[in-house]
Amino acid sequence: MKKMAAVVLAVAGTAALAACEKPPPGVTVFTGTSSERLAPTCFSWDGQIDPQQCLNDAAQKAASGQTSSLTVVPENVVGISVDTSIAEQGWYPSIAGQRLSQEPITETYFRFSFPRVPANPQGYPLAIISEGEQKGVWAVRMDVQG
Fold first, then answer.
1. How sure is the predictor about 12, in pLDDT bands with cuts at 50, 70 and 90?
2. Which residues does 19 contact at the CB level (< 8 Å), separation at least 6?
3. Tell me, which fold does domain 24-144 have in CATH?
4. CA dist 6 to 9, 10, 77, Å?
């Protein structure tokens, strides 16, 4: 009986491990004294996603409040920290569809001054887009303070 229980536990343990998936890499956005660790809006280890559709989905989710949000003061610094696996593939940030870097970034950290824009009730979507084999989009809504 003990032998059977050990076999059942071994099989169950193997099945549980097989069901585990490696979590997608993360992104953290900082401004002022606040930060948000972002889960991807969409991600694929093998690049099997439509990046433009992901960007559209990310913008819609940010506008409707389905993503994290950060309050930002115009002209204050916003920092973006990405996991090493994202940096190795190359990535770029985008605000409301406008790329902030023409060339892919291969560093784990990027900072910029948030533009002077009027407050918008839907905020401004900040998207982080990874390139290369591992494709993904992370999004956060930037709410402009007064």
1. very low
2. none
3. Immunoglobulin-like (2.60.40)
4. 5, 6, 57
pLDDT of 62 strictly over 90: no
pLDDT tens digits along 76-131? 999 999 999 999 999 999 998 899 999 999 999 999 999 999 888 888 999 999 98
Quick check: 135 and 62 in contact, CB under 8 A?
Answer: no
Longest dimension (CA), the chain: 72
Domain ranges within the chain, ordered by starting residue: 24-144
Contact 42, 54 (CB under 8 A): yes
Between 142 and 14, the higher pLDDT residue = 142
- Distances in whole angstroms, Cα of residue 26 to Cα of each of 2, 3, 75, 83: 43, 43, 26, 6
Q: What are the C-alpha distances in Å from 4 to residues 10, 47, 104?
A: 10, 43, 55
